[in-house]
Design a protein that fits this description.
It contains 5 helices and 3 strands; from the N terminus they run E-E-E-H-H-H-H-H. It is an alpha+beta fold and 105 residues long. A hairpin with a 2-residue loop joins strand 1 and strand 2 (18-22). Helix 1 (40-53) packs across helix 3 (69-77), helix 2 packs across helix 3 and helix 2 crosses helix 4 (84-93).
Amino acid sequence: MDRKTEPHLCYSLQLGCLCFETDVPGRAILRRSSLSGCTVSAIGARVRRLRKSRGLSQIVLAELAGIHYNTLKRVESGDANPSIDVLLKLADTLDVTIVQLLGGK
């Protein structure tokens, strides 16, 4: 019996100068950006700075944003390429736009 392989689909979402890609709907990962300073480590440093300026611990910010503590820890350390969902939750909780979170004006 021949089994047909499912075609591999890739979804791409362009938000201004940001490009998110995924092969799983609902799980878009930041792939590239034309914003200077929009690297995974720069995003992590920005999240850490914003969190600390608001007097929040990693545990509290993770709870408020509705993400796992380990996810936040990996984002802040630059070890994780955050999904658009995580970035939106963090931006909303930190009261900044996603563009500001990623280093734009």
